[in-house]
Amino acid sequence: MSEEKKEPQEGAEAGAAGAAKPKAAEPAPMILAGVVLGALVAGSALGALLIAPRVIQSRQAAAFAEAKDPHAKEKGKKGKKKGGKHEGKEGEGKSTVYRIDNIIVNPANSDGQRFLMCAIAIQSEDAEVLAVLREHEIELRDRIVTLLAAESIETLTAAGARDSLRIHLANSIRPTLGEEGAEAEFQVYLPQFVVQ
Fold first, then answer.
1. CB-based contact 192:118 (threshold 8 Å)
2. H-type helices in the chain, by residue range?
3. How do residues 60-113 score in pLDDT, each as one tens digit?
4. In this structure, what are the phi and psi dihedrals at residue 37, rounded to the nearest 5 degrees?
5. Measured distance CA(68)–CA(71) in Å, rounded
6. Homologous superfamily of 74-195
7. Contact 187, 122 (CB under 8 A)
């Protein structure tokens, strides 16, 4: 009898131990699920607050740069960029280009509500002409800003306005070149021209 009594007790102990094991195993999946959920939330917050703004900013900067000058990739390969001015070979000849970027003016009669943002590129086969213009950049910038600020919004947005502005800009640039300005050959381009 004593053997029979021991067996049920052992069975009861084994049953209690067996019942305890599943209860101990249940919290582990819950803890694991909580850790995974916490990691997902932390990763999402990190991505939304730190990484996403940087990615968006870099994409917007690239899109703005391409919208500003769609041929920027080609120009980067052809010439060297130097402080807002590009020097290098353009086209088939030995002409070089001097570029003045970031010209922003309020057109006449706009009461500060509208603005023109543009860039001027001056191309010449005579390197001395461009050297003189580089030396007088401040004066040149002032002449360009004065000329553009005198134009009205209607004039700037009219059909053919860019062509007439190129001629006016060339005539405004010539005095900067001094006595040789009357004989100097150069072309004026407006690679960026935005009226807002």
1. yes
2. 2-25, 27-46, 52-68, 72-78, 127-135, 137-149, 153-157, 161-173
3. 666 655 555 555 545 444 444 444 444 444 444 566 899 999 999 998 888 888
4. -65, -40
5. 9
6. Band 7 domain (3.30.479.30)
7. yes
Return d(Cα 173, Cα 17) in angstroms, integer.
97
Max CA-CA distance within the chain? 132
Distance CA 133, CA 141 (A): 10
Is residue 96 a contact partner of residue 85, using CB atoms and an 8 Å limit? no
Token pair, residue 55, equals: 């990615």
- Say if strands 85-88 and 187-195 run parallel, antiparallel, or are unpaired: unpaired
Residues 6+ apart with CB under 8 A from 88: 75, 78, 79, 80, 96, 97
3-class secondary structure, 183: coil
CA distance 159 to 59: 33
* Tokens encoding 144: 């360009």
pLDDT, tens only, 165-183: 999 999 988 888 888 777 8
Q: Tell me the whole-structure pTM to 2 decimals.
A: 0.50
Bridge partners (DSSP) of residue 108 are 152
Query: For strand 85-88 and strand 79-82, is the pairing parallel, antiparallel, or unpaired?
Result: antiparallel
Pair 189, 121: CB distance under 8 Å: yes
